[in-house]
Every structure is written in structure tokens, then in C-alpha cells.
Amino acid sequence: MSELKLIRGYPKNMRESIELVEKTRDGRIKHPYKETYRFLTLEERDEVLQKHHPDYKREMKRALKIGPNKGDLVPLEIADILEAHSAVDPKDIDLSHVDYDTDILIIGSGGAGLAAALWANYSGTNAEDILIVTKLRFGDSNSKMSQAGIQAADRPQDSPMLHYLDIMGAGHFVNDPELVKTFVMEAPSIIKWHEKLGVMYDREPDGTMIEDLIGGLSRLRVHCCRDYTGLEIMRNLMDEVQNLGIPVLEFSPAIELIMNEYGQAAGAILWNMETEEYFIARAKSTILTTGGFGRLHIQGFPTTNHYGSTSDGLILAYRAGAKLRDMDSIQYHPTGAAYPEAIVGLLCTAKLRGRGAQPVNKYGEVFVNPLEPRDVEAAMIIRECYEKNNGVETQTGMRGVWLDTPMIDTLNGEGTIEKAFPAMFRQFNRQDIDIREDPILVFPTLHYQNGGVVINLKTETAVPSLFAAGEVTGGVHGKNRLVGNSWMELQVFGRRAGIYAAERAKKAKLGKLTLDHLVKYEEMLKEAGIETDRRSPVLLPEYRGERILSHALDIL
Amino acid sequence: MSKSDVEERKVRVYVMGREYKVPFGLTIMKAMEYAGYRFIRGAGCRGGFCGACATVYRIEGDYKLRVALACQKTVEDGMYLTQLPFTPANKPVYDVEKLSPSVNVLLEYYPEIAKCVSCNTCTKACPQDLEVMDYVQAALRGDFEEVARLSFDCITCGLCAMRCPTEIVPYSAALLARRLYGKYVMPRAKHVDERIKEIEEGKFDGEIKNLMSASLDVLKEMYTKREIEK
Amino acid sequence: MRIPYFPGCAMKTTAKNCEISGMAVASKLDIEMVELPRWNCCGVFPSLVNDDLMRHVAPIRNLIRVQEMNKSGIVENEYRLVTLCSMCYHTLKEANLFIKDKEKLTKINTFMDREEEYGGGVKVLSFLELLKEGGYEKIAKEVKKPLKGLKVAPYYGCLLLRPREIGVDDPENPTILEKLLEVLGADVVDNPCKTQCCGSYHTIDRKSIVGELAYNNLIYPIRNGAEVIATCCPLCTFNLDSRQKEAKELHRDLKEIPIIYYTQLMAIAFGLEEKIFGLDLNLHYIDPKPLLKAKNLY
To answer: Which residues have C-beta within 8 Å of that of residue A22, sequence separation ≥ 6?
Structure first.
């Protein structure tokens, strides 16, 4: 392989395409995207999704053979973890000795878990009666990586009704109306709570929140903290949890739920990732806030998700008898980085398009309105690259389209990118690419679990005493989530989970602990004729190469 | 390196002293996984936002210690590296409701910031290229706005605290400063309060109820016809 | 003239009244004090306590900023650095003397590898010195409201005067502040305690020592008829002013006396706007306003 010469981060063939993008830029700036490319009608949306969106590849899914959602079509990778053995053999577990006894067990420390912990405390549960357990570090989550922001209809020109409509439309109208209504009505109060904590939302000098209009929205509604929104909110929430003294157990994922004789969720088996010791955590209420599934690499896509995103909560809940919904719908973020290889799959925030950057093909032509909802946008990019063959190909075979970021400074004033997109600027600067001068290559990347565990307004699942909130749940976003609504979901329903779990814990009665549900699940697998050595939860993806694994000896 | 190593464009990295030959173009994190390491500590978001993979390295032939995030930095030939997955920094407990944005508050909870000798080691240790010393100095003179501005992109990786000769934990002091700034100094958004009031008074109850009970066709029409703000 | 100005941490917080009045009176005398960009704390804590190289990095870094100001054209060929705070003045000047040892300068320069080298050419001045340099006639011209009838006792403290190599005037019997007060029209009262230490950092954990010192430093000028003490240094000011509380607990016969910066007196004498006097920033323990009102100066 000859030495590839890079010119400001890009090789020659990509530079040639960039020149074409530069040629069309002035024309595209003079005629803003809103007039250049109209939105697709609902019928057109359907058509392009059917043809190009990865969700619609029937062969990449199969029907579940067991459990509450038997018969439902889900991606192969999801079916693989649901139709798998537990990592735990009940015979090996001594339930008689309880290591952690708590009122509320919160599994996961992202935005939803932290909100649940704080609001459980605010509503009267003592800090020492709450226990947060996390698989990796405290705060490790997709929440922290979120960039664009958080939605709340708090401007006079906006209303909860418009927010409701936007959500339903993006979600293909199958969202749970009760959940969505509660969501849009409680969103502004979350912003107020964040203000009280000290979250540094971007504002005008008079205090008015700066809000963006991004794909699928009808109003400027996405609040942001530059493009480190998730990080900024998480820093505040984490600090608050530490100040209140709520105990956190790191590197201790829940590998199975524990039930009791009354059929209620009664805690979890925790496993120390470093010492391999298991612990019994008994709880009066258990809250699942385990996030998404990006590291399962559905259909082999790269992902925006953090290292531990392996949908543990989904299988834990499923084994306990919880019902799932919309697991056939996977969100691919339209603009994941496609070059260079080092950052493939990483999120390039939708806010870039919100501030004017247009996706264009290798000839510099616009082929989609930048403000379509995510699934439509992603499908259109896939079509452009694979049906029309107008994408740019990198030396690793990755295809993508350009996101014309230099437009942002031209449209909004010099210095906008550095001020509003420090994370993006830094991410590409580290790869010797200056996004103020050159466009970036993007392609859809595995991003979000639209569906999940079914919950009601109290975030209760079908399993008594088991609550769930955040990405692990379904119903709020229907078949497709809008930008900025994930963070608000974490807060609105994380808060509710904390409050209602606390309420329930007050009336809970402790019963005899049991792992019978695991035995039953094993029987279900047998009856359905599922023969496999797969185990779940997966906990971490396996990134070591074949070469290493084929020579590894487990001796110590 | 062998001829095939060179042909395949392999580079030498030394993980805590042991040599591995890994393909060119991989990040430190992926290179270590290629070499056979499975991260439990030292990996988090893998995207440059969480600071779990703080790495200190030196390039063969040079004496300078450099810093990077393993998930973002690509390997270089002759890279000697180690990771710092945890920093045992002290964090005091406080209640922002009871504090005010004054330098005395910062000095009360983080008295060690007065020990700053302006040596700039913290700035050199920051993988986000922040001007850490400058924001510690801004904290010392009660300039909360400057602390917030300069420290905003901090991912609390811990490297600055580990390198500071006077045991300051810059990012913790900055976090308190930012929270106080966001809570007390930044102007309030009145429209949020107004909207919350409207919601509590039930202003939108009727219309929302209609939306919830609307038929699918009506809903689709309303959605298609809704005006997008300019 | 445009001259680099080093504020220091106190001038931005507890001594804001000194900075506001100081900047304003300077401006009246055609002196534009241009704040040093990216300045850091002078390093008074570490550098005065220790004699090593590391702890002189902080002040030297500030002197490099003066060089940068000249390079970038913010000031033109002006390598003097003026300060209002006595402690900053002392620390910066002392660092300048420290690096006269070329070996030490080389080491510090090599350590600060992200800065340009310090050449040793910056001169550190106290604002008092700058005023004297400009000539008292110039100051007299600006006095619109002479401080007639105001009996002022000068107080220098230590760091402005000692050691000799650093002092702005004779360490035993300085007169630079008296001369200024005379020009302002005040009745200058002899203060035998004018160069005595205020207690400095003992104020943090040995308040009673500072209270006792405050008593001793105040009763003599009071007995000589002083109605107000004019100070130069934020720490002295704090110790003489706020610690009158502890002083009174130890000696009930202490009459309370307001403490005011000489820059504030200048602002009053120049007839500037009242908000420039810095009397309403909640920084005075003993309120000078009643006294000033009685003298028709407020």
C-alpha cells in the first residue's frame, strides 16, 4: 500500500470532490435549503423508507420464538440477545445472603437514572436508601455524548400541541398518546429545574433561551449548551447526586433481575466487572435505565453509542416478563462521521444541519432537505450512495456524502462554528480537518433504540415493582425519535420513575427472593427448540481480533 | 520490523512498556484491542466526551510527555503509552442553593487554588487543549464568566489534577464555578416561567385532549399542514 | 500615556474601590492604565514564602505579558508595569531582582517553554511612584475640592518600603504619601506607626494578633488628631479596617476610625462622580461617609 498523501486531512480524490462542493456553495447559499429542496410527502417518505432504510430489510429480522413478544419481528441481533441463555445458573447463586439492601435500585447512571435518583430523594427517600449501579464508570452513558440538545415548547410562538404533532408525525403516529401528552406538558418544567441546578443553557443577553429548529420540528425548540449539551447537563446531575450522598456502585452491572414470591421485581444480581464476584442487591423498587444497544452493531453498522451500550435492560426485563414494543424500529442517525477511519460512526450533531450545513453528493448537489426527520434523512443518504452512486468513497470502502459545514459561518457569521460547535470542531481538528474550511463526510450510523420496554405514565412495566425510563423504554417516540427528545424523555420519565418508584417502595412488602423466572426462561428456550451457546446480557462488545481470540488461553 | 510489517503499514506501540505491532490508522484504543486488550477500565464513550480513556504518551526519541484521549488519537510509530483510568481527587459536598457566586465560596471549598504557582503544567496536561491555568487564575479573582468560558469543554479526565504540583483539582473548582454562574449570574429565561404557568393553569388542556383523541387521518392532515417556522 | 497595568486578585474583588478610584484619577492625569491581558496572580503567597525558582514563575509570567503587550502594539515602547496593590508591587519587583542572577533567569525561561523568554527589561512601578514622576503640580491642577479640614494620617505598611532595594521611598521615614496628601489639600497628621506592620497573613488564623496590632497602629495617629487613615495596600486596609472589631474587643477604649485608600481621597479631591469614590461597594467596615459628609466632601 503506497503512502497516502493527505491535503489538510483529505486524500486527493476526496479533495477533487470537495472542489465541486465549493463550486456549488455560493449558489446554494443564495437559495436557502428551504426553497431548494422541498419536504417529501408522507407517501414519498414511506416509499423511500421501504426501499432504502435498513429497518425494512426483512432478511435482517426474524420473529421472536419466545416470551411476551413472541411472533414480533425484531432485528437479528436483538433476537440473538433475547433468545439466549442467562449468564447466571440459579444453582450457583446464593440468594440467602443479601449484600445490598435498598429501597430503590437504579440500574444505569445516564440522564434517566440520575433524574430518577434525584427525584426519588426530593420526594422523600433518604439518599442511603437509594442505590445506583453502573456497568462502567458513574455517568458513563449515551446521555453524556449527546450534542444537539433538549426539546421543550416554552416559547410564546410554540405550544405543547405543536410539539405533540411533531412527535407523532416523526413517530409514524403509533406513539402512545398519553406518554406523549405528559412529555410535552412537563418538558418546560424540566428546563426550569435545570436552570435551578445551574445548567449553562445558551441564552440571549436578556435570558431568552436560544433554541434551534432541526429535522422534523416545526418550531425552534431545541435548547442547547453549545454542542456539549449532554455533557453539560450530566455534569450538573452527577454533581448533584454526589452532593446529596446517593451511593453509586461502579463497574457492577446487573446481570439478572431477582424476583420475589409475589411475582414482583425485587432487585438484581450485580457482578463486579473487575473481580468477577457477584452480589445480591435487594430492592423494594427497581428502575431500569440501561440505555441503548449501539454496541450490538445492528446490520454491522458503526455506532454513535458508548462502549457499554448493549441493551442489557431489555433482556433483563424480558426475562422477568415485561412486554416490549416497536423493537422492529431502529434509528440510524443520518450524519455519522464517515471519514477518517479513526472516527467512523461518531455522531456529527444534527445541529449542524439546523444551523445551515447542507448534505450534498459528490458533485456538490443537494439531494434532500436537511430538515427531514431522521429516518427519512438517513434513507435518502443511503439512496444517494447506493442507488444513485453519487456518494464519495474512501480508501477503506466506506461511502458517504458531504455535509457542507463551511456554510454555517457564512450564513451565521464568522466564528459561529467555534462558538456553537466546539465539540465538532475539536473532533475533526484532531484529525487535521478544519470544518470551517472543508466539508465533512457523513453516512448513517446506528444511533438509537426507538422502541423498548412498555411503560405507563408511572413508568411501571408489566412486571410489578419494575420501573423503566429512557432509551430502554418504548412508546414515547413511536417508530422514530426526534432530535432533542431523547434527553427530555430521560428527564420527564426519569423524574417520574424516581417519584413513583419511591411511592411504591413505601408500600412494598419484602418477599422471599427467587430466580424461578430464569428457570422458566430456560425452559422456554428448550421448548422453542433454540439451541445456542449465546449468553446475555452481552455486557461489552468483543473488539479483539480473530487472530488474538484464536490464540487466547484462559489459564489464570 | 519485518518486511511484511512495513508492507502492511504496521507501527510499533509500547503499551506500558511492551511492544505491539498494530496497523497504521487505528486509534490508540482500537490498536490496544487489536493487540488483545479488552477494556474494562479506560474506555467509556469512545467518542471524546467522557474522559475515561485519558492517556499519557511519549514518542521515541523525544523526552516530552504528551496527553491524548485513546479513543480519538491515532497511533504513531514509537509511541510509549499508559492510561490513567481514575483520579482519586477529593470532591467536597455543597448545596448550590445555599451558595453565592463569589470568590470566597470557591476558596472555601477549594482553598488549594490559592496555591497556584502559575506553572502552566495543567494546561499542558489537558487533552481538550483548554487553558486550565488561565481558568484557575480567573477563579482566583472571582471572574466566574471567564472560568465558565474557558473550562466549558472540560470532560473531567483528571490529568490536570494528577500533574498539578500543588494538588489543585482544577476541574472540580471549575464545575462549582460554572454551576454558580449558570444558576446565579446568567439571566433567567422568563418565557419558561410564563409557559409553565400557562400549563399549570390548564391553558392547553382542551387542545391537547383534542389531539389525543383525533383520528389518524385528522392527525396526519394536521401534521402535513402545520407551518414550519422560518 | 498608555502604561501596562497589573491589577492583581484583590483589585478585582475586595479592593475594587481602590481600582475604580485609581483608574479614574489616573485617567484625569492623562494616564491610561491598560490592563495586562491574560495576567495571573502575582504569586505573592508562594513567592514570598519560598526562595525557589518554581515559585517565581508566576510573577515572571506577568512580566512576559508586558513584553507581549509591546509586541502586539497594545502599548508602544512602554516596558514599565504599574500596580495599585503594594503586595503585587513588591512581589513583581522582587521577582525582577531575583532573576538578575542569569542562571536563575535561564532556568525559569527554559521551564516556561510555551512563553517567549523574559529579557529582564520590565520595570515595576507603584502607582505612587508614577504619580510622583508625573509631578505634583499636575496633580494639584486637578484638585477641585481640596480636602480642607480633613485630618489624614498616612499609613504605608511594610511591603511598599522594605527591603531597601524594593522600597518606593526611605524605609525609616518615607514622605511620598504625605506629599501627595498635602497636594490634595488635606491636613496631614503625623503617624509614628506609618511603617509598622499590620499583621499581614496572621489575619487568617491569628485574628487576635492582628487586632492587637491594629489597636497599636491606630491609637497613636488618633491621639495625634487623625480622623481617617490613608492606606496603600489591600491587606493593610483589611487589617486596619475589619479587624477594628477584634481590636475593640481587646481594647474598649479604641475609637473607631475609617480607613480609606489614597486613590479614593484623590477621587474625592478631584471632584469626580460619587460612584467613583468606591464608598458604596460594601467594602468598608467602618463607613467613611459620615465623616466625609461632615467635612462637606460627600
So the answer is: A364
Report how far apart, in Å, the C-alpha atoms of A168 and of each of A478, A481, B207, B212, B221 are: 7, 9, 15, 10, 12
pTM attached to this predicted model: 0.92
Positive or negative, the Cα torsion across C87, C88, C89, C95?
positive
List pLDDT tens digits, range B139-168. Answer: 998 999 999 999 999 999 999 999 999 999
CA dist B210 and B219 (Å) reads: 10
* Total Cβ atoms within 10 A of residue C187: 16
| Number of residues written out for chain C | 298
- Which residue of B195, B210, B219 to mutate against A (max A Cβ within 10 Å)? B195
**Please, which residues 139-198 of chain B have a Cβ atom closer than 8 Å to chain C?**
140-143, 165
The kind and range of the H/E element at A193 are helix A177-197
Give the helix/strand (H/E) hosting A118: helix A111-122
CA A492 distance to own-chain centroid: 16
Query: How many C-beta atoms surround the C-beta of residue C178 within 10 A?
Result: 22
Q: How far is CA A401 from CA A26, A147, A342, A364, A444, in A?
A: 18, 21, 18, 9, 10
The single residue of A52, A226, A295, A353 carrying the catalytic annotation is A353
Q: Which chains touch B (3 or more CB pairs under 8 A)?
A: A, C
Closest partner residue to B140 (CB to CB) among C41, C55, C61 is C41
Instruction: Find the Cα–Cα–Cα–Cα dihedral A516, A517, A521, A527, rounded to 10°.
Output: 60
A31 carries an active-site annotation: no
Chosen for mutation from C40, C42, C47, C91 (greatest number of chain B CBs closer than 10 Å) is C40
Who contacts A249 (Cβ-Cβ below 8 Å, separation ≥6)?
A100, A131, A132, A133, A134, A270
Pair A379, A371: CB distance under 8 Å = no
Partner residue facing B120 (CB), from C13, C39, C114: C114
Strands A392-393 and A399-403: antiparallel
Lowest average pLDDT, out of A21-30, A198-207, C223-232, goes to A21-30
Nearest to C89 by CA among C51, C50, C118, C123: C123
| pLDDT, tens digit (0-9, with 9 covering 90-100), for A392-441 | 999 888 999 999 999 999 999 999 999 999 999 999 999 999 999 999 99
C53-72, pLDDT tens digit by residue? 888 999 999 999 999 999 99
Using the structure block, give the residue that is written with the C-alpha cell 383520528: B215
Mean pLDDT taken over chain A = 94
d(CA A417, CA A424): 8
Q: How far is A25 from chain B (nearest CA, A)?
A: 21
Check whether C49 has a pLDDT greater than 70: no
In this complex, do C40 and B143 lie within 8 Å of one another by their Cβ atoms? no
Nearest to B226 among A140, A165, A228 (CB): A165
Residue B143 and residue C112: Cβ atoms within 8 Å? no
Spatial CB neighbours of C197, under 8 Å, sequence gap ≥ 6: C157, C158, C213
The model's confidence at residue C47, banded by pLDDT at 50, 70 and 90, is low
What value of ipTM does the predicted structure carry? 0.96
CA separation (Å) from C150 to C146, C147, C193, C202, C288? 9, 6, 19, 31, 12
Catalytic, out of A172, A235, A333, A477: A333
Q: What angle do CA A230, A377, A415 make, to 5 degrees?
A: 50
Q: pLDDT per residue over B170-195, tens digit each?
A: 999 999 999 999 999 999 999 999 99
All cell numbers assigned to A337? 462521521
Q: Which of A397, A265, A400 is nearest to A346 (CA)?
A: A400
Q: How far apart are CA A217 and CA A163, in angstroms?
A: 8
pLDDT at A1: 43
Beta bridge mates, A209: A203
